[in-house]
Amino acid sequence: MASTNVEKVKQFPQKMLSFSCLRSPAKNRLGPRLGRLAPPSSARIETPHYIALTSRGAIPHLSPDLLKEHADIRGVHVALEDFIERALQATPPLYSIPKSTATNTFKQFIALPQAVLLLLAPRRTPPIYCPASNTNTAISILTSVGFRFLESEEYAKATSQLQPDIVVSMGDIVQLGQKSGFKRIDKMGDRTTVWTKELIEALSIEEESRLQIKKPAIFAPILPIEYGQQSYYLEQLRDEMRPNISGLAFYDMSSLAELPSDFSSLPRLSLDEPDSPHKLLYEISLGIDLLTIPFIGAATDAGIALDFSFPSTDFKQNGTPPLPLGIDMWSPVHATDLSPLRPQCKCYTCTRHHRAYLQHLLAAKEMLAWVLLQIHNHHVMDEFFAGVRRSIAGYTFDEDRMRFEAVYERDLPEKTGQGPRVRGYQFRSIGHGEPKRNPLAYKALDEVKEVLVEATLPSPSADAMDLEEHGFAEKVNGK
Questions:
Q1: According to a count of CB atoms within 10 Å of the terminal CB, is the N or C end of the chain lower?
Q2: Residue ranges of E strands in 103-192
């Protein structure tokens, strides 16, 4: 680690986002670092930290009052594709909200506290695969009513109107399942260059016309391809767009290895898809400052209570198996367990409820089960990142990371129960004949089903004897 002196990365105007690097690795080296992100209209964020993922502007299972009272969420990731399903036929309600210089109306629209950082991106994380490829002027997106294209001009206009704290510029990212040949790779850098310049120009025009409106901080995407394949785009970022770029968004951690030193002072956002805390520690070890974590919501939906800490307070003995990263609350072994989900956990769920209650709620398919799990799982991640920051500050991160990897299993527990109902825009339909994602809520009783199939319907004039004969009634107490 290098000097502990506070290094001011960039002196932004008062109405723009600023980032201070409090502790960083030696020059031109990748490594964990401490920082402080200070948006002009939101609470500051000590980094490394995470940005909570949303669905249609809301953190799944957490209502606004619960978010305010029982969670410590510092920032949220919001996808524009969640709100513009009717944009081609009519003006989406999101665009009809009046602007205000006192409060952020986008945050009011989604009932988000003003102090919580709002990061706008064109697509969800992780994105749902779209069959159509991107074009020179647009990317393919999935709305709640189907697929469509999002034009770069439309995205820039939406950003200018909605005024998020941070906006991730559109990038020509090859979707999972699509091939990227040489011609396709060449287009990726060219398209992303044009789209980023269009966003900068749109926000600059808005800033000149309305000086009281705070300008969103632009995070430029770093493409998940080799440095040489996007060298022109990176040169344009450095030479022409650098004064207007406030951060970088990464889709692949291999892109960090060849990052030019000109960008080393900017905050780094990971839009990768880490599936375990081990992957989080790996990304932090490379110098990532902000992370999106899909496995928090996935664990909650699966009925899994996260159960790990960093630095680990447990020590692995020779021959002992590693500890699980979570607890499967569907298991009947918890039916009579009156202990909290985690010992000494200070979250709302653990201080007021026990495992038996959570297991009962899941078995009864009560929505409260996933609410309590979501509160607990986000609290575990808050404590995890607080421990990471203390570890980096104490120069013990590498040792603590090695111990964590030795103590805990590599993967989260497998899902064993049925999660909450899946909505149509959360997955892509395969085609005709695919199985239903949600089980039927009501079905015929098994012991009566065969009888009903074989029985003939009685006539409207049938009496009690006829109904009994057809299996639709039976005598009680011989009457």
A1: C
A2: 117-121, 138-143, 146-151, 166-168
